[in-house]
Design brief:
- The complex is a heterodimer of chains A (418) and B (253).
- Chain A has 418 residues and is an alpha+beta fold.
- Chain A has a single domain, classed as Porin.
- Chain A has 6 helices and 18 strands.
- Chain A has an 18-stranded antiparallel β-barrel.
- In chain A, a hairpin with a 5-residue loop joins strand 12 and strand 13.
- Chain A is globular and about 75 Å long.
- Chain A starts with a helix and ends with a strand.
- Chain B starts with a helix and ends in a 19-residue tail after the last strand.
- Chain B has a 13-stranded antiparallel beta sheet.
- Chain B has one domain: Lipoprotein localisation LolA/LolB/LppX (outer membrane lipoprotein receptor (LolB), chain A).
- Chain B has 253 residues and is mainly beta.
- The longest helix of chain B has 17 residues.
- Chain B is globular.
- Classes of the chains: A alpha+beta (418), B mainly beta (253).
- At the A-B interface, helix 1, strand 2, helix 2, strand 6 and strand 7 of A face strand 1, strand 2, strand 3, strand 6 and strand 11 of B.
Amino acid sequence: MSGQPVRRFLFAVLAGLTFAARADDADALRLADEAPEAVVRAGDWRSFAEVTLGAARRRGDGSMRHERRLSLDVRYDHAFADGWRLVFADRLDASWPAPRGDDRAINTVKEAYLSRRLARDTLVDFGRVNVRHGAAIGYNPTDYFRRGALRSVVSIDPATLKENRQGSVLLRGQRLWQGGSLTALFSPRLARQPGRDGFSLDWGATNDSNRLLVVLTQRIDTLSPQFLFYGEEGRAAQLGINLSGLVNDATVAYVEWSGGRGPSQFAAVLRRADAGDWRNRLAGGLAYTTTNKLSLTAELHYDGAALDDDAWRALRRGPPVLYGLYRQWVWTAQELPTRQALFFRAAWPDAPIPRLDLAAMLNVDLTDSSRRAWLEARYRADRIDYALQWQRNSGGSLSNHGAVPESACWQFAVRFYF
Amino acid sequence: MKTLASILALALAWVAHAASPQDILIASDAVRNPDHPFGLTNTLIEYRQGKQTDSSTLAIYSKADPRGGQFRSLVRYVAPARDANKLILYNGKDLWFFDPASQASIRLSPQQRLLGQASNGDAVTVNFAKDYRAVTAKEEETLDGERKLRRTIRLGLEAATPDAHYHRIEMWVDAASNRPVKARFFTESDKLLKTAYYRRYQKVFGVERPTETVIIDGLQPDWVTVMRYSDWVEREVSEAWLQRDYLPRFRPE
């Protein structure tokens, strides 16, 4: 082939490609010409209703338990007058059959507070507030107001657990400056015991002692370390740090630590006098995002107040009542039952088709090797979500995840936003 | 009068020509971005294969950094309903996401895209001249966003700071007015990531500015995102608000 035809051929290919690109661009611009002009305005409400159907396979006899649930979740956030703001968030879960030992319908007043801007960068809040701190996903040692906050558990997804929980009544002040802020809050004791009634305001669940929290955040370059000081009536002060930073454009690293003197979790269950050694709790992880939006997270969890290998083995072999009390305490406190665990999460929005989100999660207890796996496929229509969830708990008898009465369960949920 | 206008146009063209590539880029940024803190509504509409597949609405407050000049932005989702009132802070590579329902503040990596095809930088105001160096300028005729032939200067931009999201950008700027016309964004391996058209010029804060950006995917040209800007308003944005601890407090008026 001589040089001239080759050049002609290449020119033709180039011209064709240019024309194709222009045609693509012109098509796109024509689409944009027809794009709707309407602009959505911000509203004060964010509400949804959710209906679920599910089934759980019981460990042992393998029988199936069928479950249905209807939930209503409302959040109202309204600014009024000059610098005032009212926030109210409530959730009602009605389940068939009723959860073990609970009412069929459980209502949770998650938040109800008034906020006032005293100056441009100074604010105060009063009422029930969902106070939450922590850099990790699966375990948050610095989330000091998590104890007793779960009234109704509809999913083990950490995001849902953080959303569907009861706040604490408190008075909070915050002062902001360039790159930093100081927050101080006091939460009083309002009752000593949690309420069992499904429509109870349940002061005793999240306001069972006098508590104090001071949080200092200061941006240092791209890091924004957060220092926490937590004090509670009858307990030694706890210190905490949250720190996160970029490893590269695709990776975030984070660590969350809380430490202080205090009893072991087992001593706390028995209300036994304890030496009050220094105990550390830690969660650290990496989150990596690929160019096609797949996010992969891995975390290591450590709870220095939890049972070690030998003590955990002994408890599993010991009196069932003691084992049950310990598990109940750990669940209420949202702590780890054993010293170390691994947590993995993968989330892939718009995969493999637009609006279809896939998520997977795996908890591994490093002390007894039990596991919990969770998968979700969620399709987002305009105002409706369709979600299919599957969960499997595996492990030896009375292990962390192997003790869950259901070995596997699935759930289909339809959520309507209004 | 006609003669005067012609002379003025020629003079403008000469000035544009005489200016360095970086000067043209700075002038083009000034057309897109107001020189004071402001708020606006950004409506994103996504199309695939000619059909609308998604849409979202964001309320955005932006303010330039007095030190570096780059914009920082507070973003609140207005729609869809499932995302309403979720918030994002864009401060260079310091990106935070906050969900009021869970009170969770999560640091994001620049690669995490929350808005479909649009990158974090596409949705908010960006001064290209702060993160890129214009190294070449070449006069060229090109089709603009209204599909009209326009005399432009094609600028070749190279990433100049670690905050630059793209390795290389080609930007077409109107030769007479410095209005941005279109841009092509490339990866490190020189693959075309996307093409953006700046169009629907309207008077905003006394200057004709683009009120729509059309983004066309580089690999899948039938994947199109239309970003439409409305409700521009001058806003006071305190420096103290541009941090993650302010996200739970942010409520656009």
